[in-house]
Amino acid sequence: MKRNFLITVNGQKYDVSVVDKDAAGSTAEEVTKPDLREVPKPAVTEASAGSANTGGASGQGKATKAPMAGKIISVLVDVGEMVERGQPLVVLEAMKLENDIVAPQDGRIEQVLVKPGQLVETGDDLVLIS
Question: Which phi and psi (to 5°) does residue 66 adopt?
Answer without folding.
Answer: -70, 125
